[in-house]
Design a protein that fits this description.
By secondary structure, the protein is an alpha+beta fold. Helices cover 22% and strands 30% of the residues. It contains 5 helices and 14 strands. The chain has helices spanning 23-30, 49-58, 109-125, 194-214, 224-231, and strands spanning 39-46, 66-73, 76-77, 83-84, 91-98, 131-133, 137-142, 145-157, 160-168, 238-242, 248-256, 262-265, 271-274, 278-281. The strands form 3 sheets. A 7-stranded mixed sheet has the order 1-2-5-9-8-7-6, sandwiched between helices. A 5-stranded antiparallel sheet has the order 13-12-11-10-14. Helix 3 (109-125) crosses helix 5. It starts with 22 loop residues before the first helix and ends in a 7-residue tail after the last strand.
């Protein structure tokens, strides 16, 4: 961290470029009788918003529509239990509780739905074009290179699902955890005020979740399948799928099917759906 004037080290809570979230204003804007959101809490520090909110669900202290936001996560988790860390107040770390009514086999669309909602919200509220990497990464272009700016994690908690979103907002280049990471600020976002960004994100999630739920989880009928395919940077690329158990599968990502699985066309001419795994992009989209 760079020093403050007079040689004092920068306190992670006193960065004037990173003001705290306004919990009362957020609650007033989002938690109303005519919205999905039933409660909203902002905490200074938490290990993982997903873990903390799932514990509330299991103890009966959180129901559908509960929102938990942290100013800082000390043990944030991505897929495959990868860590997700960022300086205090530099990002949006939020989890929500959903109680889906569509059939269980369609619940796999929830992280994809959240990605579509986030990309739509960020285009409007941050002026940043966001791409989706299957199944749950948010990418944007920085210096002509795709960088990860966010990730999504959905976990069962009894009959409910806790969906978490981590988004790098104001991270500076020297604060990035890995060279492949980025932030809205580094992507040229004109503003990094997290309050309007969080409101836009949650309203977009509510909109897309309502459409999906009202269509009984049918991704085609609610427009989700088309929207995801349009924004997915994985489609049209050669990729390597690193599957659970250590197996790998290589091919061109040709489609996302009705269950939210990524369909790979292998060199042998076989189309194989992948429901879980880590995807590595092997070439840029459109490159022959």
């Amino acid at each position: 961290m760079s020093p403050e004037p007079h040689g004092e080290p920068r306190n992670r809570w006193s960065d004037l470029e990173r003001p705290p979230l306004q919990e009362t204003a957020l609650r007033g804007a989002l938690v109303r009788h005519d919205t999905l959101w039933t409660s909203l809490d902002v905490v200074e520090t938490v290990g993982s918003t997903n873990t903390a909110l799932a514990e509330r669900v299991r103890s009966g202290d959180a129901r559908q529509g509960a929102v938990l936001v942290a100013e800082e996560q000390t043990a944030g988790r991505g897929r495959l239990e990868r860590g997700w860390t960022a300086p205090a107040r530099s990002g949006i770390f939020v989890s929500v509780v959903l109680e889906p009514t569509p059939p269980l086999e369609r619940w796999g669309w929830l992280p994809l739905l959240t990605g579509v909602a986030a990309a739509s919200a960020l285009a409007r509220s941050a002026g940043v074009d966001t791409l989706l990497k299957w199944p749950n990464d948010l990418l944007t272009e920085i210096d002509d290179e795709e960088r990860k700016i966010g990730g999504i994690l959905a976990e069962r908690a009894g009959d409910m699902v806790v969906v978490g979103l981590g988004l790098n907002v104001s991270l500076r280049a020297e604060e990035l955890p890995v060279p492949q990471a980025g932030s809205l600020a580094l992507a040229g976002a004109p503003g990094t005020d997290r309050d309007p960004l969080l409101r836009a994100l949650l309203r977009s999630v509510e909109l897309w979740y309502g459409r999906w739920r009202d269509a009984d989880g049918d991704p085609a009928a609610c427009g989700l399948l088309e929207a995801y395919a349009a924004g997915c940077a994985t489609l049209g690329r050669d990729v390597r799928a690193e599957l659970p158990g250590g197996e790998t599968l290589t091919g061109e990502a040709v489609a996302v099917d009705g269950d939210g699985r990524l369909v790979l066309a292998t060199a042998e001419g076989i189309q194989s759906p992948v429901g879980a795994g880590d995807i590595v992009h092997l070439r840029p989209a459109g490159e022959e």
